UniProtKB/TrEMBL annotation:
SUPFAM superfamilies reported for this sequence: FlgN-like (SSF140566)
Name of the protein in its database record: Flagellar protein FlgN
Keyword Hydrolase appears in the UniProt entry: no
Record InterPro entries: FlgN-like, FlgN-like_sf
Keyword Ribonucleoprotein: no
Pfam family name, one: FlgN
Coiled-coil intervals: 35-96
Source species, domain of life: Bacteria
A single BP term in Gene Ontology: bacterial-type flagellum assembly
Keywords: Bacterial flagellum biogenesis, Cell projection, Cilium, Coiled coil, Flagellum
Length: 136
């Protein structure tokens, strides 16, 4: 493996590690509900992804089957797997947060129709029941 290819692989690994670090920071910002930190992390991710798009892809033949090439490929695969794992968790955290916001908005504004148990013990459809009195 040439020094140019090794340098290029190292650059890819550093970029992947940076993305993993940003994903971990995003997870922490989501847990802490820190919107300002989240905004900065997303900006940093966009810059890192733009840099990644500018990299020329390496062919498998360029890396070769040397022990160093295999080690670099394994390290790259491990970083990608870790990044996917963290991003999946972040996606679930965002979906949970959106579900809570949606529930809160429906609770405040009232649902169009709600099925509730009536005095008879049967489900009755009731109209718009808002938590707030919007009529004044």
């Amino acid at each position: 493996m040439s020094t140019e290819v090794q340098k290029r692989m190292t650059e890819e690994l550093n970029l992947l590690q940076q993305l993993v670090d940003l994903a971990v920071a995003k997870k922490e910002a989501l847990f802490e509900n820190d919107l300002e930190a989240l905004r900065k992390i997303v900006d940093d991710e966009e810059k890192a992804l733009a840099k990644a798009e500018g990299l020329r892809p390496l062919n498998v033949g360029e890396i070769g089957d040397s022990t160093e090439g295999q080690r670099l490929r394994q390290e790259k695969a491990a970083l990608i797997a870790r990044l996917k794992e963290i991003n999946l968790l972040n996606q679930q955290l965002l979906e949970d947060a959106l579900a809570i916001v949606d529930y809160s908005l429906r609770l405040i504004h009232g649902a169009e129709e709600s099925n509730m148990y009536g005095a008879s013990g049967k489900v009755e459809t009731v109209g718009n029941r808002s938590l707030l009195n919007w009529r004044g």
